[in-house]
């Protein structure tokens, strides 16, 4: 369908209290306006003559938590709607996890790559994210602290991060620095 909208949060995953997040929407068409909805309520309109829009939220609070979606309008007609993306804002209480990639950040196409996320905390579960996707790639657990990509290609390049949370509710969170993987 030529009029579907892709939507993703940048950075992906849970957002640090006081941090910022950008909701990125893009549509194959280029002659309308993007409207951002939160929990079904109109939040912002972006006059756009291009096929993408970025809605930024800075100094995030708990109030910014919710389900965001984009509509693409031409005049008053809705041409397309995106799926909803859930944004969660939390204080980061856990130690900062460290994300590493083997054999390195710069690899040749066809290589095998391993992402490892480590955290100085005994009962945490971690999630691996790549920017541009709505969902996490992988749940990393104590049994398995790594995620393998075999036969990488250009499409696997990008900005990766991991986030960890406690096993027990209420969850406590923290996030690694972002790491860029380049596939030659």
Automatic annotation (TrEMBL):
Coiled coil: none annotated. PROSITE patterns: IG_LIKE. Keywords: Disulfide bond, Immunoglobulin domain, Signal. GO terms for biological process: immune response-regulating signaling pathway. Residues 3-86 form the Ig-like domain. It holds the Pfam family Ig_3. This is IGSF1 protein. It comes from Corythaeola cristata (Great blue turaco). The gene is Igsf1.
């Amino acid at each position: 369908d030529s009029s579907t909208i892709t939507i993703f949060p940048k950075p992906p995953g849970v957002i640090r209290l006081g941090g910022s997040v950008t909701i990125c929407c893009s549509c194959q068409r280029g002659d309308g306006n993007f409207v951002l909805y939160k929990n079904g309520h109109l939040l912002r309109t972006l006059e756009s003559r291009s096929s993408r829009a970025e809605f930024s939220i800075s100094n995030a609070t708990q109030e910014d938590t919710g389900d965001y979606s984009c509509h693409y309008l031409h005049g008053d007609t809705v041409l397309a709607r995106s799926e909803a993306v859930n944004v969660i804002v939390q204080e980061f209480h856990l130690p900062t996890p460290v994300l590493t990639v083997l054999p390195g950040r710069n690899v040749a196409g066809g290589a095998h790559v391993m992402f490892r996320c480590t955290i100085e905390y005994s009962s945490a579960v971690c999630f691996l994210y790549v920017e541009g996707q709505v969902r996490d790639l992988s749940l990393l657990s104590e049994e398995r602290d790594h995620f393998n990509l075999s036969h990488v290609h250009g499409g696997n390049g990008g900005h990766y991060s991991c986030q960890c949370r406690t096993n027990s509710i209420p969850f406590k969170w923290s996030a690694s620095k972002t790491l860029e993987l380049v596939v030659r």
